[in-house]
Design goal:
- The protein is an alpha/beta fold and 364 residues long.
- It has two domains: 134 residues, 3-Layer(aba) Sandwich (Cytidine Deaminase, domain 2); 208 residues, Dihydrofolate Reductase, subunit A, CATH 3.40.430.
- It contains twelve helices and 18 strands.
- The strands form four sheets. It has a nine-stranded mixed beta sheet. It has a five-stranded mixed beta sheet with strand order 2-1-3-4-5, with helices on both faces.
- β1 and β2 form a beta hairpin.
- The longest helix is centred in the first third of the chain and has 12 residues.
- It is globular.
- The two termini are 38 Å apart.
Length: 364
């Protein structure tokens, strides 16, 4: 098999850690000796052990003389565990192939340097574009001090999320809803605005996917005016719940939600709303690398308007609701087409009777 084929295998392993390993990157590693896979690993829940450690333990003595395919440059710093670059050297690996360099200042080429200084043949840049997309959240936190943001819009054919009376369950079918749960699971946090929390009272948990590590549920509610009874309040212990609020939030409300088990976090207010950029930076400071935003329309528009949406997921159902239906996005203030947020289509797939499209933010 080619280097690209083995790296594709490593990338598929690394994706198993998405949403489960923050603030660490989700890495995959495959060890190959004499054309046979002798070890496989991916970053384990919570970020430890690393992919290379898992693969080396599985390979044992067979790692000596093997080629290691790693989706991100092996770490070079001493943290909770010794550096993976040194572990590869100690195991006698003969060659290391990586997809991309790690921009973390503690690594940033030092992992590759440790390998080369030990006489190991190092090649990098294999399936780099795929790795960059997989590592978008980790890279965003390192380079921009904020997580990657995915915005999901589930709409009718004409871009509506509810009828004029507010009826919205269910526009999309069961296959689409299961896909949404899988997307929640692959992100560190799920984010909605206060309007959606009040109107839908969502739990925002991953369900019907077996025993999984729940994403952090984040509600942006400037005044913390959320339902004190209902699904959200009853599910506080089902997974971490972070409530972002402004200075106007009543101390009694803050204390009441803290008593339930939620974490209340103050965020600066700008122009009467929670500052969107500061919101993401706050999540980044707490280790979040990937955020999955599920609306609502006004909050989604504010994130788009601020240029903070990195990835867009649209799910279109085969139903038309008309102009009187509720639009998926609030006002954006776009006067000319050139000012509109623009995205590049990555892939589409059918979900029962619905169509899912994934879009990445287009380069300026």
């Amino acid at each position: 098999m080619s280097d690209a084929a083995h790296m594709a295998h490593a990338l598929s392993l690394g994706r198993r850690g998405l949403g489960r390993v923050w603030p660490n990157p989700a890495v995959g590693c495959v060890l190959v000796r004499d054309g046979r896979i002798v070890g496989r690993g991916w970053t384990q829940p919570g970020g430890r052990p690393h992919a290379e450690t898992v693969a080396l333990a599985q390979a044992g003595d067979l790692a000596n003389g093997a080629t290691a395919y790693v989706t991100l440059e092996p770490c070079a710093h001493h943290g909770q565990t010794p550096p993976c670059a040194e572990a590869l050297v100690a195991a006698g690996v003969a060659r290391v192939v990586t997809a991309i360099e790690d921009p973390d200042p503690r690594v940033a080429g030092r992992g590759h340097a440790i390998l080369r200084e030990a006489g190991i043949d190092v090649a990098t840049g294999v399936l780099a574009e795929d790795a960059l997309r997989d590592q978008a959240g980790f890279l965003s936190r390192v380079l921009r001090a904020r997580p990657m943001l995915t915005l999901k819009l589930a709409t009718s054919l004409d871009g509506r999320i509810a009828t004029a009376s507010g009826e919205s369950r269910w526009i999309t079918g069961p296959d689409a809803r299961r896909a949404v749960h899988a997307m929640r699971m692959s992100h560190d946090a799920v984010l909605v605005g206060a309007g959606t929390a009040r109107a839908d009272d969502p739990r925002l948990t991953v369900r019907d996917m077996g025993a999984v590590r729940q994403p952090v549920r984040v509600i942006a509610a400037r005044k913390l005016d959320l339902p004190e009874y209902g699904a959200l309040a009853a599910s506080v212990t089902d997974g971490p719940l972070w409530l972002l609020h402004g200075s106007e939030a009543a101390p009694a409300r803050i204390e009441a939600w803290r008593a339930r088990g939620a974490e209340c976090i103050s965020v600066p207010v700008a122009s009467g709303f929670l500052d969107a950029g500061r919101t993401l930076h706050t999540l980044g400071e707490r280790g979040i690398t990937r955020v999955f935003c599920e609306g609502g329309g006004s909050y989604a528009a504010s994130l788009l308007g601020a240029g903070l949406v990195d990835r867009l997921v649209t799910i279109s159902a085969g139903v038309a609701l008309g102009a009187e239906g509720q639009p998926a996005l609030g006002a954006l203030g776009v006067d000319v087409l050139a000012e509109a947020p623009r995205f590049r289509l990555v892939r589409t797939r059918r979900l029962g009777g619905d169509v899912l499209a994934e879009w990445d933010l287009a380069a300026p």
